[in-house]
Amino acid sequence: ESPASNAAAGIDTAAIIANDKTTREWPSYGLNYAETRFSRLDQISDDNVGKLGLAWSYNLNSRRGVEATPLVVDGVMYVTASWSVVHALDAATGEPLWTYDPDVPREWGVKGCCDVVNRGVAIHDGKVYVGSFDGYLHALDAATGERLWKVNTLIDRSKPYTITGAPRVINDRVIIGNGGAEYGVRGYLTAYDVETGKQAWRWFSVPGNPDEPFEDDSMKKAAETWDPEGKWWEEGGGGTMWDSMAYDPELDLLYVGTGNGTPWNRLQRSPAGGDNLYLASVVALDPDTGEYQWHYQHTPGDSWDYTSTQHIILADLEIDGDKRKVLMQAPKNGFFYVIDRTDGEFISAEPFVQVNWAEGYDDNGRPIEVEGARSRTDPWETIPSPYGAHNWHPMSFNPDTGLVYIPAQGVPLVLQNNPNYEYNNTTTGAPNAGLGWNTGYFFANVAPEATPFGTLLAWDPVKQEEVWRAEYVSPWNGGTLTTAGNLVFQGTADGRFLAYDAGTGELLWQTPVGTGVVAAPSTWEHDGQQYVSVAVGWGGVYGITQRATEKVGPGRVFTFRLGGDASMPDSMVIRQPSDLLQGVSYDPDDVPAGGALYMTNCLLCHGVPAVNNGGNLPNLGYSSPAVIRNIEDIVFTDARAALGMPSFKGKLSERELEQIVAFIQGSADAARAAMAEQEKASSSGD
Ligand SMILES: O=C(O)c1cc(C(=O)O)c2c(n1)C(=O)C(=O)c1cc(C(=O)O)[nH]c1-2
Ligand SMILES: [Ca+2]
After folding, report:
1. SS3 518
2. pLDDT at 292
3. How far, in Å, from the CA of 541 to the mean position of ligand 1?
């Protein structure tokens, strides 16, 4: 009998709540409804973690980002890879049980801002739910992987909506949001009946067409905080709920984090200003009806892509002598928030990294903005950048240490108001505008002052201060897991998987895993044995264009246990300086114009040629000369459609492509010259 045959039959809301007493299973994205990612399992501990070894690895056949947390129930693991493919495995052995491929049309790839990723499934009563990148919610038979039903969650399939987040199940509803606010959509969250897929409710996060009635009172209230001209409606306004949710069964409140405005630049989106509710907020809804209950807005009038879709954790903390039911969040904007989850009352907010857009928060929970932090005509560096001081990579909270473990980062970027901004126009020099990105900013060609960093922060949410940290070589490290064994687990951009002492931050164990890690680990128990699993596969918005590893493997799941002795699979070297493009003739005078066109059409997928190391999409500065010889075929036909590459026929002229090629070869030549210079300097130095 297949271990999957009866799998997941007993999983429902009561079971997820009951499991939290033992945490033997990992039945939902954040482990429990409070999304703590704190496991009570302690067989693997700070005493013995040095004996952790590989139990098995499994090849996900995935070359793009893997962001899923592996769920495990009844000895079966359910994990997703890029393009929303679901894999069910025997959790103890890694043997495949079934695979479900929703067959996302590869043309949909270009509708996503941030890689064709998926963060995992939800499980309920013998069913597995996955949201596919092209906007469907699929219900699968947990035993066989057969599809039971599929519903279209999108209100308009011509718009650039995508799904990357994991659904959550509360009672008899399965809930899913979507993304798309970089291009221009109106964000909403929808609940479906777990059995039939029939829609139960939908809540929009921003007001809609001003010529039509409001969907509910929350939209009426929100509309007062947007420019009365209704200009935002051209693009949808944004506010997409593409990742975080949490649920408090006692209060019966569903919490959801909302995204940035479209376009990013408020000057262009809502010229009269305003808070633009409910962008960049946490919102409490009635999970049964979807009715709005309250909100707290972290970034009023967001103008920096400061989403609040980042991980939400619920905990009961003692603050100033009182036990408070709190909600904790570390959104992109760089502040750590503690709010009262019963009514949204602000308790505290402190920066967990350097920030330059706000000095802090007043007692009413409003940011004190720094003069000049918004939409300037001259280039200015906003810290954090739109990559966020913390992105979707899940954090975790350990009640034993009282600490939150945050994958924090800095990815410097210089912005500049785009005065020529118009919805859907292709302003040359505006990032990926040729593909429909509409941020309302240029990425200015000015070197940022800040340096990139990636840091694991252990944060005390009561004192609102750092307790310990671990520094990494690069931003964009994995989500975290913490356990009653006094451990914190995290994978890194440079392809390692690590365990720390949760109290002190001492590094206790590490292993290479062949490629960069962005996903968060999970831990679970089977036949008396504790396992730790992590899905690896470099990608996401930062990982499309750059990486911190020299070797890569395909996306994989690694599962560890004490005494595990399986052997590590091989990975391969991707690229050396000698692979830099050479021999393409070009006119150096074409380089500047080519650079602007490159920015408009190529940058956000292919990175800066020869400067970024290349991510999970090719860096064109390392193209082979044959690719450049065939470049008209690649750019003006559907030759690469199966990989998600769109045709630029009608968007670029042959002359413009020639200028882009000049920029690519010019950049490779410049990089080669710089390396030679460096070598000369270092050899004459000794
Ligand atoms: O505005 C949106 O709708 C939206 C969606 C997504 C997504 O669905 O992945 C991301 C973002 N924004 C975003 O701003 C961002 O930094 C980001 C990173 C990632 C990722 O998976 O690495 N997704 C997203
Ligand atoms: Ca966004």
Report:
1. coil
2. 98
3. 7
Residue 574 pLDDT > 80, yes or no?
A: no
What is the 579 CA–ligand 2 centroid distance (Å)? 34
Determine the Cα–Cα distance for residues 70 and 523; give it in Å rounded to an integer.
9
Q: Whose CA is nearest to atom 1 of ligand 1?
A: 181
- Amino acid, res. 72: V
Instruction: State yes or no: is 305 an active-site residue.
Output: yes
Distance CA 354, CA 335 (A): 9
Closest CA to 260 of 278, 279, 284, 245: 279
Q: What's the rounded Cα separation, in Å, for the pair 633 and 191?
A: 44
Q: What pLDDT does residue 234 have?
A: 83
The answer on pLDDT for 686 being more than 60 is no
**Partners of 72 in beta bridges:** 26, 77
d(CA 657, CA 673): 24
Nearest to 265 by CA among 293, 303, 238: 303
Pick the range with the lowest mean pLDDT from 203-207, 295-299, 643-647: 643-647
State the pLDDT at residue 238: 97
Q: With a 6 A CB cut-off, is 67 part of the ligand 1 pocket?
A: yes
Q: How confident is the model at residue 2 (pLDDT cuts 50, 70, 90)?
A: low
Q: Given a cut of 60, is residue 1 above it in pLDDT? A: no
C-alpha to C-alpha distance for 113 and 604, rounded to whole angstroms:
8
Closest to 197 (Cα-Cα) out of 118, 129, 125, 288: 129
Of the ligands numbered here, which is closest to the C-alpha atom of 118? 1
Task: State the pLDDT confidence band at 572, using cuts at 50, 70 and 90.
Answer: confident
Around Cβ 22, how many Cβ atoms within 10 Å?
Answer: 11
Secondary structure of residue 14 in the 3-state scheme: helix
Strand pairing report for 96-100 and 122-124: unpaired
Q: Is the pLDDT of residue 321 over 70?
A: yes
**Distance from Cα 586 to the centre of ligand 2, integer Å:** 37
113 lines ligand 1 (CB under 6 A): yes
ipTM for this model: 0.99
Question: Cα 211–216–220 angle (5° rounding)?
Answer: 60
Torsion-angle region of residue 303: left (phi > 0), alpha (psi -120 to 50) or beta? alpha
pLDDT of residue 247: 98
Q: Three-state DSSP class for 159? A: coil
Neighbours of 284 (CB within 10 A): 23
Q: How far is the CA of 41 from the centre of ligand 2 (A)?
A: 35
**Averaged pLDDT, 27-35:** 98
Residue whose CB lies within 8 A of the most ligand 1 atoms, among 64, 114, 183, for a mutation test: 114
How many C-beta neighbours within 10 Å does residue 572 have? 10
Q: How far apart are the C-alpha atoms of 610 and 671, rounded to whole Å?
A: 6
- Is the pTM higher than 0.80? The answer reads yes
Identify the band that residue 520 occupies on the pLDDT scale cut at 50, 70 and 90: very high
- What sign does the CA torsion over 297, 299, 301, 307 have? negative
The per-residue pLDDT of the chain, averaged, comes to 95
Which of 46, 305, 494, 590 does the annotation list as catalytic?
305
Helix (H) or strand (E) holding 223: helix 217-223
Residue nearest to atom 23 of ligand 1 (CA): 114
Dist CA 9 CA 612 (whole Å)? 47
Counting from 1 in the atom list of ligand 1, the atom nearest the Cα of 332 is: 16
Question: Cα separation of 480 and 498, whole Å?
Answer: 10
Residue 429 or residue 544, greater confidence: 544
